[in-house]
Write a structure and sequence with these properties.
With about 450 residues, the chain is α/β, with parallel strands linked by helices. The protein has three domains: about 250 residues, Rossmann fold; about 70 residues, Winged helix-like DNA-binding domain superfamily/Winged helix DNA-binding domain (Arc Repressor Mutant, subunit A, Orthogonal Bundle); about 80 residues, Orthogonal Bundle (Arc Repressor Mutant, subunit A). It has 16 helices and 16 strands. The strands form four sheets. The protein has a six-stranded mixed β-sheet, sandwiched between helices. Strands 2-1-4-5 form a four-stranded antiparallel β-sheet, with helices on one face. Helix 2 runs parallel beside helix 4 and helix 13 packs across helix 15. The termini are far apart. Adenosine-5'-diphosphate (ADP) binds next to helix 1 and helix 15. The site of magnesium ion has 2 residues, from helix 1.
């Protein structure tokens, strides 16, 4: 039933030790990845799986030597990298082709950079083009090609340098489902045939099924509060893999549970200066998920129609979405206390049911009460209540959040907090003056304010 051929039997190609990567926040470095140890061996396909924001692309760029780790090392065949990794080539989600060059010229670009002469470039490019099923398209320009054909160019451009390790960042996720399926299948056939000109593949994906279809090893990255390796699975199913088999489905379910489950794993030791989780949700450990009120209310309604509970996998299937699209909405319901998550199973709570069943005015009230328990919404509301005129500038909250989030994350956090607060009628936001204003209905509560001072930690 299972084979282990090719899995972690070969030589070490890439190794990562104690990698931490931080990006600059206004208030110092903010970790995006911490405590990462990974080794990639000859003969294996490794999938890096995680929700968006968990640091997958960052880790891949570190493997490619495109960005340096903040601490720890990345080595290629035992030698620590000092710049771009000479043993890797990258395939990007967005293809990243040069529109003014033909297919052939796009494929040759990587070779030119390595100082290879015209005749050899031409020969190698034609070989890669042929391998990946692009013959006939040599003189076409990217804009003449379908998405699938463009990504073939992306593959050819990476394979032409015959890297030891092919790195792929969500290479199929910009393609329609059938094209993605076809291209993924062809790639795996090539790999299995032994004609693939690389010795290992690392593929980043947020799609569990894709990870289990392709990989010998699936590494799950978690993102609370920064990216760490949550679990690693050896996948020893025979190839080509049968999605309908019991073992396949069982693995998918198990990995779903790991990706969505929380609380079971003790948090790993945080890097220096990072807060550990505390019983009461804080700004740092309870970021607002990227979910609009419309989106989370829609999900609550769907759950209500299914007697209040559903499997995330089944739900994603029913809606034609990927689990990654749903998770922020599920996270939002959970954060608001409107739903509980047990393994891959979401169930509405009594409040969630009340929220979903209520008319607009009542649902706003229920939402407001729940949102006030969410650290950032609470921080904004109580700060406004304490301000002299009920108004505070956007920059004030940006600065507070900069202690815990990167600049990009701060923008995203405030965008969601604005949406939630407006809907809850807790506060409004004036984009022209970049100012939050307490909702007039809250102003009366100023007199009997028993709210303890908000900690931003
Ligand atoms: P993934 O690929 O899993 O979606 P990324 O590696 O792209 O995750 O990002 C991880 C986190 O790091 C995100 O929160 C993102 O906002 C942040 N991030 C990524 N690149 C940068 C950057 N250049 N500067 C600041 N923050 C960044
Ligand atoms: Mg990414």
């Amino acid at each position: 039933m299972t084979t282990t051929i090719g899995t972690r039997t070969g030589a070490e190609l890439l190794s990562v030790h104690g990698l931490t990567k931080s990006y600059a926040g206004a208030d110092g470095e903010l970790p995006v990845l911490a405590g990462i140890d990974v080794t990639i061996h000859e003969g294996e396909i490794v999938a890096l799986l995680g929700k968006s924001g968990s640091g997958k692309s960052t880790l891949l760029r570190c493997l490619a030597g495109l960005i340096p780790p903040s601490s720890g090392t990345v080595s290629y065949r035992g030698d620590p990298l000092k710049g771009a990794n000479p043993g890797t080539a990258m395939v990007f989600q967005t293809f990243a082709l040069l529109p003014w060059l033909t297919v052939q010229q796009n494929v040759e670009v990587g070779l030119e950079a390595r100082g290879i002469g015209a005749a050899r470039r031409r020969q190698a490019a034609l070989k890669a083009i042929d391998l990946i099923g692009l013959d006939g398209f040599e003189s076409a320009y990217p804009k003449e090609l379908s998405g699938g054909m463009r990504q073939r160019v992306g593959f050819a451009r990476a394979l032409v340098v015959e890297p030891d390790v092919l790195l792929m960042d969500e290479p199929f996720s910009a393609l329609d489902v059938l094209t993605a399926e076809n291209l993924r299948g062809e790639l795996l056939e090539l790999w299995d045939s032994g004609e693939f000109p690389t010795k290992a593949i690392v593929v980043v994906t947020h799609n569990i099924e894709e990870a289990v279809l392709m990989a010998d090893r699936v590494i799950v990255l978690g993102s609370r509060p920064y990216g760490t390796i949550r679990a690693s699975y050896d996948i020893t199913l025979d190839r080509p893999r049968d999605r309908d088999s019991r073992q396949f489905t069982a693995l998918i379910n198990e990995i779903y549970r790991t990706m969505t489950g929380r609380g079971e794993q003790a948090a790993p030791l945080p890097p220096h200066g990072v807060e550990t989780a505390r019983p009461r949700p804080t700004l740092a450990d309870s970021p607002l998920p990227a979910a609009s009120v419309d989106g989370l209310a829609g999900l609550a309604e769907i759950l209500q129609r299914h007697d209040g509970h559903l499997d995330i996998a089944a739900l994603a299937d029913e809606l034609g979405l990927e689990v990654d699209d749903l998770l922020p909405l599920v996270d939002a319901l959970e954060l608001l206390g409107f739903a509980t998550l047990d393994g891959g199973h979401v169930a509405l709570s009594d409040e969630g049911l009340a929220f979903s069943a209520a008319d607009v005015q009542d649902s706003k009230k229920i939402f407001a009460a729940a949102a006030l328990e969410v650290p950032l919404v609470r921080l904004i509301t109580t700060s406004l209540e304490k301000s002299v005129d009920g108004g505070l500038r956007y920059g004030f909250f940006r600065d507070l959040l900069a202690h815990h989030y990167t600049s990009e994350q701060v923008t995203a956090q405030l965008e969601v907090a604005t949406d939630w607060g407006r809907y809850a009628e807790l506060y409004s936001y004036d984009a022209n003056h970049e100012e939050y204003m307490l909702d007039p209905s809250r102003a009366t509560s100023l007199d009997h304010d028993d709210e303890p001072g908000m900690s931003t930690a």
